[in-house]
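I hope you will forgive my troubling you with a question about protein structure. I should value your view on which stretches of the chain appear to form regular backbone elements. Here, with my thanks, is the record as I have it:
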Amino acid sequence: MDRNASSPLNSTVLPTPLPTNITSDVNATVKPFSVFDGCDYQVEGILFDLTLQCINVVIGIPANILVIAILIHNRKEPSTSDIFIGCLAFMDAYFGAMTPVSFLNLYHWQSKEVWSALKFSYGVKDTSGPLFLSCICLDRFIAVLFPILFGQLKHIKYRLSLSVLVLCLTFAYSAAKVVGGLPDFEKVFTGEILAAFTWMVVCNACILWALKKSRGAGKDEMHPMKKKAFKMVLSILCIIIFNYLPPVALFPFEDYYAPDVFRCYVQPVGFAFLNISSTIQPLVYLSRLEKVPFLPETCVKKWCACVSADNKTPPAQKQNA
C-alpha cells in the first residue's frame, strides 16, 4: 500500500526502471500488471485489511448515512462542529463504498483504471480522517480554553473555509497518490499522521485538564455544555488511541523491517486499524446522542449497548434524580 507509503493495495511508487542495456532483452517477459504489487504470495495482511473494511460496508456506510441524516434533521440547532462531522461521515461512507470495488478488482477486473480510482479513495481516507478530527479538536479546544474568542469565531463561514481547505488538501494528496512516482511521497502521510496524532492528543489533554479544573473546589457537577464537550473529547480521544496509535507506532520504524515484510504485512495491518475508523467514528457519535431520530429506541439501545455501557450516568446524578 503506498497508501501513504508503498503499501501493496495503493502504491504510488513506480517500478524501478531497468538499465537501458537490458531493457530490450526483457520487454517480452515483463510481468503483467498486478494489483497486489509484489505481494501476490503474501496476501494475508492485505486480506486482513479488506476483511475489516467489510465491516465498513455492512455497518459503517449505514451508520455514516444516519449521521448525515441526523445532522440535516438538526440543522436548525446545529453544533459548531457539525460541518466537520458531516464532511467526515460523507468521506467515510464514500471510502466504505469502494471496498466491494476493491475486491472485484483484485480477483476479477485487474484494471489499472479502477486501481487508480481505488488509490484516490485511499488517499481520501488517509487525509480526510486525521484532518477533520483535528478540526473538531481545534473547535473544542477554542470553545473550552478561549470562550471569548470562540464567540467571535462562531460564524459558520470560518468552519466552511477550514473545511474547504481540508478538502483541497485531501484531493491534492489523493491526486498525487494516483499519479505516483513522486520522490519521498510516502513520507508525507507519515509526517501528517504524526503531526495530527500529536496535535489531537495534546489538544484533548488540555481540554480534559481545563474541564476538570473548571469544576472548582467542592463542586461535583459540571456545566451541561462543558459536560457535553467533555464527553465529545473523551470519545475523540478513544478514537485517536485505537485507530491512529498503531500506524503512528509502526510506520516511523520502516527501516527496521525487511521491505517485503513492511509493505505486505506491517502497512496493511496498520492501515486496517485506521480504515476501521469509518465504522467506529459514526458509532461513537451516535452513542453520545440522548435520542437517535429515525430509529426505535429499543433498536438503538441494543445497537450501542457496548459503547453506552461506558457512558452511564454518574452516581452523583443518579442520587439527585
About this structure: The chain has one domain: 42-300. The two ends are 53 Å apart (CA to CA). The CA atoms of residues 95 and 193 lie 18 Å apart. Residues 42-300 form a domain with the Rhopdopsin 7-helix transmembrane proteins fold (CATH 1.20.1070.10).
